[in-house]
Specification:
Elements lengths: L1 E10 L2 E11 L4 E5 L3 H11 L7 E6 L2 E2 L5 H6 L1 E4 L10 H10 L10 H10 L16 H14 L4 E4 L5 H12 L3 E6 L10 E4 L9
Parallel strand pairs: 3-8, 3-9, 6-7, 7-8
Antiparallel strand pairs: 1-2, 1-4, 4-5
Helix pairs in contact: 5-6
Amino acid sequence: MLELNDVSIVVGGRRRLSALSLLLADGQSLLFTGGGETVRSALMQALLGMKPVAGGHVLIDGERVTPMSAPCFRSQTAWVPASGQWPDETVHDLVDRLCRLHHHAATAPSQDTLRQAWEAMGVEAGVTDKRIGELGEETRQLLMLAVARLMEKQRVLVEEVSSPRVAEVLRLLAAEGRLIVATAADSSVAGSFGQRMDLEKFIDDSI
């Protein structure tokens, strides 16, 4: 379960999001739209405990997200970042690095299993040796969602959903009981999500 209680987030030295509250249970999905990509990204980083909130608090399963608790929560969460935040490495190296992290050791899928999962989503088999930057955004997102599913991540956060196809995969992951939070510039993919929240309603540039 994810809970936001009167959360405010500062972006660029100004209070951009203010008084944001919500409650999202496992098996539910939420799409954040509006507010600008920088604001949406800052909110997702706050949910991951990578950025402190300026007011209020974020809770996961009833426990506050703090610098101490955030690493544990992140180990249980799949994060698919926006296009400008991907590392400059091959798909193989990225997945291998993720799998070698200590908290992934027990659930790391084999390369054959990964290829099968990717191919089931329509991703070409030869993608493993390509660099992340060479791939389209939809392909990058589908690849990482396949990894998240195989690693049995309970929470999935996706920045800037790139296509209706990715949105549909997220709908299926929610149907499997996962908690899904995503962002998009507009509501064109909102039909695949149980809830949508327009962040424009929470923008406050008065400070």
